Amino acid sequence: MIPVQVKEIAFDLSLSPVVLLVDESQKRALPISIGPFEAQSIAMALQGVITPRPMTHDLMKSFCDNLGASIRRVVINDIRDGTYYAEMYIQTVSGELVLDSRPSDAIALALRAGAPVYISEKLIDYTLSVDELMDESQQQELRKILGINNLDDFKKSLH
Fold it and tell me: What are the sequence ranges of the domains in the chain?
């Protein structure tokens, strides 16, 4: 398993939301297309937004908390026919449960629970280098997010 960080929500050329999962070296990224509602939920979790009433993923986390269960980790584990699959590992009083999940829901819950996110080794071929992923303006935005101040530092971080 490869640990990844949920970096941000971006948009593809058709303006559909994409969640970017970046490896620890910040050299490779796995973009996963997601729905607009899930994108909003992930973005809210990334920004620490608290709503006056619980949103769906907040409610799911509350269920876990109140039932004595905890989300231990999320693994994006497969892609079939262009669709990514994920598993959520949940610790309960009677043992660990592994639940099939859409990656977007699993990521939204992992962020709320502070649980780590991983991708399966077999998905490494679906990752892109930061250069491949974005045009120059998008690279500049990512540099800001990653805290890379100049182009030389950016190029060094890619090797």
Answer: 2-133
Taken in order 7, 10, 12, 13, is the CA torsion positive or negative? Answer: negative
Residues 109-123 have a mean pLDDT of: 97
Q: Which of 130, 127, 131, 63 is nearest to 97 (CA)?
A: 63
The pTM of the full predicted model, rounded to 2 decimals, is 0.81
Instruction: For domain 2-133, say whether CATH 3.10.690.10 is its number.
Output: yes
Cα-to-chain-centroid distance, residue 5: 6
Q: Is the pLDDT of residue 112 over 80?
A: yes
> Cα–Cα distance between 5 and 93 in angstroms, integer?
28
User: Which pLDDT band holds residue 50 (cuts at 50, 70, 90)?
Assistant: confident
The amino acid at 28: R
Alpha-carbon distance of 25 to 2, in angstroms, equals 11
Give Cα separations from 87 to 14, 24, 47 (angstroms).
28, 20, 24
Reported as a pLDDT band with limits 50, 70 and 90, residue 159 is very low
Q: Which residues of 15-25 are buried (b: 16+ CB within 10 A; e: fewer)?
A: eebbbbbbbee
